[in-house]
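ok so i was messing around last nite and threw this chain in just to see what happens. nothing serious, just curious
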Amino acid sequence: MRVREFAVLFGNVKAVCLVLLALQNTALTLFVSYSRNIRKEQYILSVDILLSEVLKWLICAAVMFYTGPPDKKAYFNRMMATSLKTMIPALLFFIQNTLLFVALANLDAGIYIVINQLKIFTTAICSVLILQRNVTLTQWRALFVLVLAVVLVQNPKPECVCLQAEEDTATQRKTNIVGIIAAFAMTGTSGFANVFVEKLLKTSDLSLWERNFQLSFYSMIFAALGIAFDWRLVVEKGFFYDFSLSAACIVVIQAVGGILVALVMKFADNIVKGFAISVAIVLTSALSVALFGATVDLPFCVGAGLVIISIFNYNGGGAASQQPSMRTEAAADWPRPGVSTGEPQLLMVVANSSHREGLPLVVRDKDEEAAREAAEAAKPDLAQVNVEKTQ
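result:
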């Protein structure tokens, strides 16, 4: 009975992580909108990003210090010695953020929103190529509907712009091309980097906290390099210029969001994460009406409905319940004592949380022979059962 209760509890972790991620994205957007648009705070964004990475690194380090082996120095040295792989996604995320600024500076908001949603497709394509994930035609259709829905929800309102008669159309066209190239490159790096991190989390012997510790370390380095672009502003106005309580809340929300994203990647996948973020976009727009007096138009209502339809359509595609790459190891993700002692640990693994007729359990161990014996021992003795029935 305890095994089934554990399986049901673990099966709910996926849904809980997705809900928390949607709420975190909603809170982050609302706080940023309140801080930058309502209070008109002008704190330096690159400083805010660096502080969030530092906080996330400190959280993971604290968990590792509490749950790690007695020899802390050797433990942390080993973590840094095996961290080079995480430098790749950290660099890609830095490039992605740089391309984001280039795209926003050279593109109209409407064009950027449309191209930016293509990262849903690039993530799915990278999942198929790198993780060998099976995505059915129905699920591809659901992803297309999701892209259309988010574009409708984020439909920018037309602004009154006075066009000059002597506008240089050739220069404008060249600027748009630069922005489009940057936006497409950003969607590609986003999809590959996220799937690469997902593979690291699902195929590594390290825990989620250890991988996040490594990733945050290199992210801090690249975030510090990002401050170089705002160095003149930092020198003139100071590192914590116009830094307020709302800015501090944004730092905390971003740090927690980084951990939640890793949880979703471990327990679910990047494609499902895209649906959670899309729900957050709809929820943010709806709350903006009550909090900031925003208006709701027909495209938003249609887009919100399409988001819900795409979620049910994707979940009904049937591919997720057949892919082994969706399996996640519960014990490897939560703080546990003796993580680096080398002792064999039995991990209860739920193959998929969406099965209606019970949750199949798989027993894994670093020692395959011990795991096989444990699995055989868990099976009932059919011969003994038959003898008891005949008697």
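not much to say yet. Residues 1-10, 159-167, 319-366, 381-391 have pLDDT under 50 and may be disordered.
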